Amino acid sequence: MDYEGDTIMGGMETSPPFTQQSATGLLFHLQKASTLLTNLNPQNSSTAYEEKEIQVKATIEDIYNRVIPNLSAAQALAAARASAREGYEKRKNGHKNRNRVKRKKKRDKRRKRVERKRWEKRREKRREKRRVKKRLARMAGLRRHGKDCAFVFENMQ
Predict the structure, then answer these.
(1) Is residue 130 part of a domain?
(2) Where does 1-156 show beta strands of DSSP type E?
(3) Which of 69, 37, 70, 68 is nearest to 53 (CA)?
(4) Is the residue at 38 inside a domain?
(5) Helix 73-139 to helix 20-39 angle, to the nearest 10 degrees?
(6) Which of 27, 74, 95, 133 lies 20 to 30 Å (CA to CA) from residue 6?
(7) CA-CA distance, 92 to 11, in Å (whole number)?
(8) What is the distance between the alpha carbons of residues 36 and 56, in angstroms, rounded to a whole number?
(9) Mean pLDDT in the chain?
(10) How many other CB atoms are there within 10 angstroms of residue 136's CB atom?
């Protein structure tokens, strides 16, 4: 219903037949509206919603019955393509976002790998220092590790 209270379809009988261009555009919006309607899922359905849904479905069906016979197959195909193109654009934008997330994950993995290598190098340096201390302690005749090793190591440098 429009703002004056008349039904949307009320004036269609008196209006001139669709031009091919307007029919194609109408079919595009019709397909869009029907997909929106199918995706619409109310959390708590009410009788008002159900009545409105029935009314909208009846209107869509009525428009389909009036428009499609007046369209050529090529125009119907063009409208379907336009509708599909719009869906593709939306999916593509989502895909961009998905790629951005994947790139970030890859970047984080790379960063972790680099950090892991850095930590491994540090760990290896520490191990090498410990080995040197132990070797010096053995050479000095000390079997215990700890303060004695550190003391010997400090004095030999």
Answers:
(1) yes
(2) none
(3) 37
(4) no
(5) 50
(6) 27
(7) 39
(8) 11
(9) 70
(10) 17
